[in-house]
Every structure is written in C-alpha cells, then in structure tokens.
C-alpha cells in the first residue's frame, strides 16, 4: 500500500518535502529547506527520518529554496539517485543551490569571526561543493511528458505559472494519480503565464499560503509609483528585499513600465544580487515560456553610468554592458547590475537617491542585510516588502512595526519608512486557489492542505468543504497517510 509522509510544509509554509513510499520505491517530492522561526530552521539540522541513500529518486516542483534548498544536504548524506525537474527548474537550481551553499559558508565564517553564534564553531548546513554535486544529478524533463522515475512510479510536470520552470508534479503509481501541487501561480499577472487548469486526480496536495486572504487589488502600479515618488522627494532610497528569482522580474517589469509612462522619475535601479542577475538572463533565454509581452527587445547600451561605475575600468564597464544586454527584456533606462562585493559596498555607502533590489526576500540573509543596516536608521529611506514574510523573519518583524531589528549581531534602529505591497505575490490567493480547483471535473478522494500557516490552512479547508464538498485533511509534521 502506498503512503505519503509529510516531512515539511505541514502546518507551516516552508520546508516542502513529501515522501511517497510504494513498498517497491521511495520517491521524495520536493526537498525544501525550512525557513523563518528558529524552531523551524532547527528542523534542517535534525536527523532525516530515512537514510538519504534509500531514496530512489527526487522530484522538484520548482527552484525556490523552500522546495529545493535541502537537496545538497541529502546529497552530502549519501543520496545518489536522479533528481527530476523541468528544464527551467534545472537552469535556476544551477544558480540557486551553489549560491545558497556560498551564503551559508559566508554566514558561518562571519559568525565565527565576530562571535555572534552560540555554536563553536558555527557550521554551514552544507557548502558550495555539496550544491554542485546536487545540481549534477538534475534530470530535465519537458512539460506534459510522463516519464518513469522509480519502480512503477512515473511523473508528469504541468506548468504552475509560479516561477520559470515551476510545475505541479502529477505522479502515477498503482493505477492512482497524486497531484503534488507545488506552489500555485497567479491569474492575469505579468511575466508568467496563468497556471494550467487540471481536470482530475485521485489525491491532491494544494498550497494554502494565502488560504485566508485575498491579495490587494491590482492598481496598475499606482501605489508603487507613489512610494517611489515620496521617497525621492525626501531625498532617500527605496530598498527592496526581494526573492532573487521570480519577484525581481516583476519588480523590474513595473519600474520599466512606470518609467515609460512617466509616472516615476528615471532613477538608477540597482540589482545587487549575482543570483538574480543570472536568473534574469535565464528568463530572457526562455522568453518563449513567458507572457508574450516579455519577448526580448533591442536594448540601448548607452545608458548613463550610475555611482557603481565611478572609477571602474573600461573592462569593468564592458562587463556591465554585456550583463545588461543579457537581461535586456527587463532593463530600465538606468538599470545597473552589481556583481562584486566591492561594488556592493560602494553602493551601500552611497547616499544618491536610487532603487536598490537585493536578496533575500524575507531579509533572512544575503547582501540586502548590508543595505538594511545602512538604510534603516535614515528616515528619508523606504524599505519596501513585496512578498510573503514568514513568521520569525526580519521581514515579518518590519511589517509588524519593529522599532529595531538585529543584523549581524547588532540592533539596528528602524527609522526608515516601511511599506508593503501584497499584489505582487507569486502565490495564488484564496479566490485564485478556488478558481483553480474549480477546473476539476471530479473531486479527489482526499485533498491535503499544505504549505500554509495554521490559520490559512484551516480557512482554505473550510472553504473547500463548503464550496466544493470535498474531503480535506491538514496533515501534521512527519505524519504518514496511507493511500487506500
């Protein structure tokens, strides 16, 4: 008898991991890292309930760390099977996972150097070398093409409209179909196509991140324009912690559009995230998977140089121009990419009004912490949060009005304006989830509500029961359910 064990994203948003065990084969769908609250992050360090070498294969729905970020840890512990995913997910994992390994090594090194960790020595969950071994196992598969995975298990990827390469994983085994929903995208949003409708499955796992909420109405960028203009009038900078993959693309889309319509002044727009820069290039290369209005256009490489170019050599300027040509579909008039740590420090020290986009999206790590550390004490600046902020993250603390947040072992005063825009979320809200579920022509035998905080899960479960009459279940962490 087949079973599913919920090893993550059960009554919480992060750490998606679902172990499908048919008796003949064990397949892990998603290998996500826990993020947010300390008690959740500590799960990343706990002994995995199955030996990594005993997992026959892994299936990834997309390349966000809460769905793929634990993969290098499993590889370090002995997993040697194939990792099935779409080609777009493979492209982005090649960027995301080594970057994650580097950041963890750097964070551990900084903690040891400055003594702000309780562990001696502080260690990374995994390193860059583990991540490179992990990406070598990726097996790309096209959309809508069922392929054998292990034993009698086969998988088919269906476009979820959440991220480049994102998918639902429709798994077939023993005459049953299980739809692992991954993250569900939005309807009618820029950059990515709408999520594909699905007509049936015997079992369904559906995310509930916004199961109790409806996103802000799309106002055609009006609030974003107001925030930018107000900050410029104060002589400040707009600092945006952003998910390096997925959110950056929509942000730049809107800045480009607002500039073109003369609704905001033309400002330097700095993208300070090597990973996001590489991801933009992959989006441009896979333009055929994007909305039609995102096809690459000819880009004027004679843009004025911003502060990060001062003192740069001709060769450095040439590299800037080349990077920006590679992401031409997204460039604003004064778009600048920041790759090196030296350039990032120069940008942090500058006070010139500008828009700075940097990772990570919940301000849990990465270069954005340096920009926040420098910018939060200044009341002229604005920190703009544009995505879901999990409990326990700096981003959530800022949204909830914290007067100070701790960065690199220091308390940093929050004097800057803090704004948040909910309409840019890449996750479907409660109405969009129900719209997608409405495409089913017959109800699943059971619908598992996952990837949400308890209140959101309970609200979505109640709505599904009330509107559709489906049987639902909200599994507990590490609970095993038999598929009868």
What does this structure look like?
By secondary structure, the chain is of the alpha/beta class. It folds into 2 domains: 3-213 and 426-482, Metallo-beta-lactamase, Chain A; 222-420, 3-Layer(aba) Sandwich (Rossmann fold). The protein has 14 helices and 22 strands. It has helices at 38-41, 65-68, 71-76, 87-114, 128-135, 222-233, 247-260, 274-285, 314-326, 341-349, 368-375, 394-399, 430-437, 454-468, and strands spanning 3-6, 18-21, 26-29, 57-59, 82-86, 138-141, 147-150, 153-159, 167-173, 176-180, 203-207, 238-241, 269-272, 335-337, 355-358, 382-385, 404-407, 410-413, 417-420, 446-450, 472-473, 480-482. It is globular. Helix 4 (87-114) runs antiparallel to helix 5 and helix 4 runs antiparallel to helix 8. 30% of the residues lie in helices and 19% in strands. Strands 6-5-4-3-2-1-22 form a 7-stranded mixed beta sheet. Strands 7-8-9-10-11-20-21 form a 7-stranded mixed beta sheet, with helices on one face. The protein has a 6-stranded parallel beta sheet with strand order 14-13-15-12-16-19, with helices on both faces. The N and C termini lie close together (7 Å). Strand 2 (18-21) and strand 3 form a beta hairpin.
- What share of the residues lie within helices? 25-40%
Computed over alpha carbons, the radius of gyration is 22 Å
**Number of strand segments:** 22
Instruction: Report the sheet-strand fraction.
Output: 15-25%
State the end-to-end CA separation.
7 Å
> What strand line-up does the widest sheet have?
6-5-4-3-2-1-22
Which structural class do the helices and strands define? alpha/beta
Domain count: the total is: 2
Poorly predicted regions are: 296-310
CATH class value of the largest domain: Alpha Beta
- Per the CATH scheme, the topology name of the largest domain is Metallo-beta-lactamase, Chain A
Main β-sheet: number of strands, strand sense, barrel status? 7 strands, mixed
CATH superfamily of the largest domain: Ribonuclease Z/Hydroxyacylglutathione hydrolase-like
Overall pLDDT score: 91
């Amino acid at each position: 008898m087949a079973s599913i064990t919920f090893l993550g994203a059960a009554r919480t948003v992060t750490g998606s991991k679902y172990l499908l065990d048919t008796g003949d084969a064990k397949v892990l769908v998603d290998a996500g890292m826990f993020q947010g609250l300390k008690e959740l992050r500590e799960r990343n360090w706990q002994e995995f309930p199955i030996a990594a070498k005993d997992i026959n294969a892994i299936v990834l729905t997309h390349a966000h760390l809460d769905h793929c970020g634990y993969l290098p840890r499993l590889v370090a512990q002995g997993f040697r099977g194939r990792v099935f995913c779409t080609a777009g997910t493979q492209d982005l994992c090649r960027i995301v996972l080594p970057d994650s390994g580097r950041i963890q090594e750097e964070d551990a090194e900084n903690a040891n150097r400055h003594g702000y960790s309780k562990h001696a020595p502080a260690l990374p969950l995994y390193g860059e070398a583990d991540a490179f071994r992990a990406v070598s196992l990726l097996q790309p598969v096209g959309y809508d093409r069922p392929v054998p995975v292990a034993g009698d298990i086969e998988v088919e990827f269906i476009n979820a409209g959440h991220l480049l390469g994102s998918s639902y994983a429709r798994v077939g085994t023993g005459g049953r179909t299980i739809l692992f929903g991954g993250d569900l995208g939005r309807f009618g949003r820029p950059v990515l196509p709408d999520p594909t409708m699905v007509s049936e499955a015997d079992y369904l796992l559906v995310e509930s991140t916004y199961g109790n909420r409806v996103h802000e109405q799309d106002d055609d960028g009006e609030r974003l324009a107001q925030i930018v203009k107000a900050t410029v009038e104060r002589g400040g900078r707009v600092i945006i912690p952003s998910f390096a993959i997925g959110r950056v693309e929509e942000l730049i889309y809107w800045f480009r559009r607002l500039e073109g319509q003369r609704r905001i002044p033309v400002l330097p727009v700095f993208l300070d995230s090597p990973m996001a820069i590489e991801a933009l290039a992959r989006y441009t290369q896979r333009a055929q998977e994007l909305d039609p209005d995102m096809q690459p256009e000819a880009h004027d490489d004679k843009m004025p140089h911003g502060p990060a170019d001062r003192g740069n050599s001709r060769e450095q300027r040439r590299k800037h121009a080349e990077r920006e040509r590679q992401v031409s579909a997204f460039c604003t008039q004064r778009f600048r990419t920041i790759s090196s740590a030296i350039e990032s420090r120069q940008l942090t020290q500058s006070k010139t009004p500008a828009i700075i986009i940097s990772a990570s999206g919940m301000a849990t790590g990465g270069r954005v912490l340096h920009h926040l550390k420098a910018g939060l004490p200044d009341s002229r600046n604005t920190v703009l949060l544009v995505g879901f902020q999990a409990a326990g993250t700096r981003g959530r603390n800022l949204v909830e009005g914290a007067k100070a947040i701790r960065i690199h072992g220091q308390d940093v005063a929050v004097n800057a304006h803090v704004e948040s825009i909910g309409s840019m979320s890449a996750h479907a809200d409660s109405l969009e989830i129900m719209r997608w579920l409405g495409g089913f022509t017959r109800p699943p035998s059971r619908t598992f509500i996952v990837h949400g905080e308890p209140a959101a899960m309970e609200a979505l479960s109640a709505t599904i029961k009330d509107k559709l009459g489906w049987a639902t279940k909200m599994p507990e962490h590490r609970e095993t359910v038999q598929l009868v």
